[in-house]
Structure formats: structure tokens, C-alpha cells
Amino acid sequence: MKKYAFLFLIIILAVSGCATLSKSDLPAQSDIIEFEPQKIDIAYDVMLMRIDLRRQTTTQTRTVTTTDSQGRSSTRTETYEVPVAYHYLGVDLGNGIFLDANMNLSLNLFQLLGLGKDQDFTIVKKGRGWFGSDTTFTRTGSRLTIDFGGLFSSKMEVELKENNARFKGGILSNDQEISVENGRITYDPHGMFEGWGKSYITTTGSSASIPGFWKDTAINKNKDGSINLGDALVVRHEGKKIDFRYAGWFGTEYVFTMVRTKNRIVYYDNRMNGVMIEFAGDRVKTKSNAGEEEYIVTKK
Length: 300
What we know:
The protein is mostly beta strands.
């Protein structure tokens, strides 16, 4: 069963002594520039080129059997956390902040690159380590190709239109489709899993609603200009910074702050846990608790 783990992850970060960032990663006050205004727009992201701010997890179990030196076997059950998959659908909150339909909060790196809507490009996400494989994103006209590389390389093609995206290839044999119309965005996997896999997000006025298993999550703007992402998070835009206030136990809250310069974005708490994205010419480097990654961007 899926467990949306905002509170669990907050507690882990709060007591962790291992910081992702250092104070030298923070920009000088004189270099910090203002963010764009906040917004609440339904949107989709087919590239999944995201940097996690708050990733949901689901609890899974496994049975482990061990044998000692005398040949005696013993069995135990272990529980562990697995990241919830990204969803193509979401809510665009501006400045690259993206909340997907599975409640994963992230920075949409592709959006932050500032590429034109119809611009051709190639982006290479470098593989990690000796055996890591590069992932290559190529757009030519209305067609996006994602090559996952590796020994058993696979490709996925997406046809991009004004209010529609259609997938070919990938894991599912049926074409998958995303459509936007009349304040509603819909993902339709078609085929035999259509009834279970079909999902949507709706918008009314300046608010959006993400359907959930138990209840829907409302994305609303408050009178002070801040945005509520359900009951667990308030995002407040304050010009040269954005505060993310996560609800904790017994009325407590945990605050992350995001600032930016012309070539850097930093999201951090008072223990220096967080994320840094650095833009340098045709290269982008990221640092987070998932490690360091590098992207090479070629505009055409």
C-alpha cells in the first residue's frame, strides 16, 4: 500500500547529521535575484528530468533466508522504503516547481533550461560510475526521442502537439496519450489497463485538484499569496526567496528555503540538507541526497 511520507522524511532529515550541501554552496546576498511570480497551472512533463525536493515513498516487505556455519536456516521479514514513480501529470507552480499526480515535489530541470517551446535540442544525462549509461533526449520538430542507452538500450518516442502528447514504445505496447482540454488534463494508457491507469487533474479558477485514493488534494492560493499543497505543505513566494513549510507532528513545521542567482539554484534547510543546481554554459550539474549528476545541452 502506498504511503505518502511527507512527515516520515521530514523527521529523518531533521535528525540527520549528514548534510547534502555546505555553506559555501549558498550564494552571496548580492548575487541573489528575484523569482518569477507564483502560479497554479495544470501541466505535464514527459521527460521526467526532475530534481527531487520531496519524493514520496511506499513501504514494501521482503523475506530473507540465511544459513549459518552449521547449516541451520533462519527466515526474517524486512521492510524498506521504495520511491514512488514519477507521474507525467502535475501542477506547475512556477519557477520550475512541479507537483506531480503522485505527490512528488520536484524541480523540473527541463523547464529551468529555458528552451523554446518548439526548439530542437539534444540533452545528454551522463551515466554514473564506470558502468553507468547515458540517457539522451532529442527533439526534432514535433518528435521527442528518449534513448536510455546501456547494453540493452531501449528508446521511447513521444509525438508532441499543442494540447496533446502521444507515446510510442517503452514498456507498454499500447500507445499512451496525454490530452489537455477544458480545465482538465488526462493521461490515458489505453489497452487492457486503461481503466486502472487512466488519471487526470482538474482546475477551477486559480485552484487545482489532484484525485487521491482516500481524498483529493487541493492546490489553493491563500489571501497572503502563499500556496497550499494539501494539508502538508505551504509554499510562500517572498521575492528573492521561496519558503517551503512542511507540517510536522504536534504543530511543528520544517522549513526549506530556495534562492537563485543567474547560474545557480539552491534549496536548503538549516542543517544544509537540500539541492543545488548549477548552470555553466552548455553543462548543468546537480547535487542532492541522490548524488551528483551532469547534463550536457545542445541547442539546435
